[in-house]
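Before the break, one more example. Copy the sequence into your notebook; we will annotate it together after we see the structure.
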Amino acid sequence: MKILICASEVAPFSKTGGLADVVGALPPILTAMGHDVRVVTPRHSSIDFSKAATLDASPISLGVPMGHGEEWCAVHETRLPDGATPVYLLEHQRYWNRPGLYGAGGRDFEDNAERFAFLSRAALQLCKAVNWSPDVVHAHDWQTGLMPVMLRAHYAGDPHLGGAASVFTIHNVGYQGEFYKEHLPRTGIGWEWFHAGGLEFHDRLNFMKAGIVFAEKVSTVSQTYAWEITTPEGGFGLDGVLRARSADLVGIVNGLDYDVWNPANDPYTDAAFDIEDLAGKAACKEALQKEYGLPVRPDAPVLGVVTRLAYQKGIDVLAAALPAMMRLDLQFVVLGSGEVWANFVYGDLPNRFPGKAGSFIGFNEGRAHRIYAGADLFLMPSRYEPCGLGQLSAKRYGALPIVRRTGGLAETVASYDQTEGVGDGFAFDDLTPPAIANTVGWAVSTWYDRPEHFAAMRTQAMNDRFTWDRSARKYADLYQWAVERKQTG
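Here is what the structure looks like once it is written out:
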C-alpha cells in the first residue's frame, strides 16, 4: 500500500512526547514490509540537522489553499534513520519558527488552529505536487484531526486523493485541539461542516472530534485505553462520540525500539549488562546513587521515576504518599519537570529526605537512561496512560515497574503472583496515597524477603518484548480495513 503519515512531531527531528517516538518508529517497519510510506511534518526551528538528517539541495515550493488565501511553503525531503523512508519537512517561517512546538511560557500559541490546519492541508496538497496517490492517509492526534474531513470537503473527486481512506490515531484524548468557532474560516473548511455531527463541540471547534467522526477507522495505543475512552471517566467529553464509532475503534499497543533501549550497548550508561550477566547493572546502580548524592548501598532497592510532572501522571497523589513511602528502607530518584508546584515539591526531595532521595528538575536523555539502568524498581502511578513507554524501557533494563492498572500499563505489566513467584512488576487499581505506598511496600518487601522471586521477575521482565514489528503488522491490517470501508461506503 501507499501510506501517507502526518504528525506534528517526528523523532529524531522533533519531540515533546511519545507521539514523536511512535511516528519515528512505525514508518521504517512498514517500509521494510514493502509498503510505500511517506511522512509529512513541520520543519520546526528547533530541529538540529547536524544530528537529525541531511536535507535535499533543492526544496520545492508548495501552494496551500487556506481560508484567507493561498499560503506558500518550502518542502524539504530527507529520510528517517533507516535511510529508506522519505520525510517531507514543511518550512514556513510564520508557523514553525517558534520557541516551542505548541506554545511557550506555559501558554499555547493563539494561532494553533490555523497552524495545524495548514499542516493537514499542506500534507494533502503535497501528494498532488509530487504526483503520488496514497491508499491511506494516517493522521495522528488533534494536530492533524482535520485531515479526514478535508479529504471529504476538498478532495472527494480528486484523482490523487479521492480514493484515499483515512485512519485517525488518538495518542491522548485529554488534548483535543479545542478552539473558538471563529477560528473555523481560517482553516479553509466551510460552516456546513460545523454541526453536532461534525466539527462542533459545545459551540466550539474540536479538531480531535473531526478526526474521530470522519476517519474510516479510528485507533488508539492500547486495547484497554480504547475501552477507557468510551467511558465518561476516560473520554474527556468525547466518550459519546467514541461509543458511536466503537465498531471502527481499535487499540494497538506501541512498540519499543530495542536497539535504542539496550543495556548491552547503551552509550549513556556507566556499564553494559544483559540477562546473563547483571554485574554491569550493579555498577550502574552505584553510579546512579553517586550521581544523585545518595549513599552507595547495593543492599537497598532504588526506586526511580522518569515523568512529566503533570496531573495525568498522578504526581499529586504520589506527593501525598511520599511520607509513608519514604519510611521504607529504600532510595528514591526522580527526573522530570512540569507543573510549577510539582517542580518545587519534587525538587526539594533531597532536603526533605536527606540520604534517601535525589531529584533533577528538567529532562535529560542520558539521565533517563541511567535511571532505568541503575534502578531496581520504577514507579508510574498514572491517572490514565494511553500506552506508556517508561514501563517497557524499565523492564528492558531490569527495573521492575510499579504501575496503576490503566491503559497500556494494564496490558504490558504482569503483576506479581506471590504464590507462584511469577510476574514482571507490581500493579494497583485505586489512585490513592495508601495504594501507592502499600504497593511500593509490597515491592520492597519482595526485594528483601523473597529475593529469589525478585530475581525471577527481573529475568521475566528483561526477556519480555513489545516490538514494533508486531504493532506494524496490526497497523497494516487496520489500513486494509480502512480501504475496504472506504470502498464499500
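The radius of gyration is 23 Å. Residues 2-255+468-488 form a domain with the Rossmann fold fold (CATH 3.40.50.2000). Try to locate both features in your own notes.
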